[in-house]
């Protein structure tokens, strides 16, 4: 019976959308998770995946060496997800207008309650031709706000593409 409970919880977890504020259709897509190993501790609500972990749900794609999912003890919904790797990567189409957002870092923390993704350690985030790089980047999936911080005597790097409409008007 205990093995059935573990299997049931893993199946239930796989049915929950990880990041709900991107394309609405993503939440309705099946989740495909691959890993070399998966463990679930019912008492704590912690599920750990290790070894070449990949998750896909619609436009969402996560790749990591290890992934830990913390569930809310009362309703088993996802509270947070932590992905680690060299680097761990995340990508998702945020909206049709904003396009694809890609992030990579040594550690990616996703807070399902606030909708904030924190990339830590050699962090980089790109979207719509712009990029942000630093030691830590906080990205609000709900608001689209980005905060980048440097560390270790380095500086934050921001790169913005040229505005082609302005450049083309200036040429005419």
Automatic annotation (TrEMBL):
<dbReference type="InterPro" id="IPR005653">
    <property type="entry name" value="OstA-like_N"/>
</dbReference>
<feature type="domain" description="Organic solvent tolerance-like N-terminal">
    <location>
        <begin position="35"/>
        <end position="142"/>
    </location>
</feature>
<keyword id="KW-0732">Signal</keyword>
<comment type="subunit">
    <text>Component of the lipopolysaccharide transport and assembly complex.</text>
</comment>
<keyword id="KW-0574">Periplasm</keyword>
<comment type="similarity">
    <text>Belongs to the LptA family.</text>
</comment>
<dbReference type="InterPro" id="IPR052037">
    <property type="entry name" value="LPS_export_LptA"/>
</dbReference>
<protein>
    <recommendedName>
        <fullName>Lipopolysaccharide export system protein LptA</fullName>
    </recommendedName>
</protein>
<feature type="signal peptide">
    <location>
        <begin position="1"/>
        <end position="22"/>
    </location>
</feature>
<keyword id="KW-0813">Transport</keyword>
<dbReference type="Pfam" id="PF03968">
    <property type="entry name" value="LptD_N"/>
</dbReference>
<dbReference type="InterPro" id="IPR014340">
    <property type="entry name" value="LptA"/>
</dbReference>
<comment type="function">
    <text>Involved in the assembly of lipopolysaccharide (LPS). Required for the translocation of LPS from the inner membrane to the outer membrane. May form a bridge between the inner membrane and the outer membrane, via interactions with LptC and LptD, thereby facilitating LPS transfer across the periplasm.</text>
</comment>
């Amino acid at each position: 019976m205990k093995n059935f409970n573990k299997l049931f919880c893993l199946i239930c977890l796989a049915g929950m959308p990880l990041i709900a504020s991107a394309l609405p259709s993503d939440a309705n897509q099946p989740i495909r998770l691959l890993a070399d190993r998966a463990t679930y501790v019912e008492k704590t609500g912690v599920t750990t995946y290790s070894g070449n972990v990949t998750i896909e749900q619609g436009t969402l794609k996560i790749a990591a060496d290890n992934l830990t999912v913390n569930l809310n003890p009362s309703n088993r919904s996802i509270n947070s997800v932590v992905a680690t790797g060299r680097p761990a990567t995340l990508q998702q189409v945020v909206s049709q207008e904003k396009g694809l957002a890609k992030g990579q870092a040594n550690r990616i923390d996703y807070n399902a309650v606030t909708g904030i993704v924190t990339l830590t350690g050699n962090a980089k985030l790109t979207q719509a031709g712009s990029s942000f790089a630093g030691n830590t980047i906080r990205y609000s999936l709900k608001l689209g706000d980005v905060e980048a911080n440097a560390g270790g005597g380095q500086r934050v790097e921001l790169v913005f593409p040229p505005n082609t409409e302005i450049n083309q008007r200036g040429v005419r």
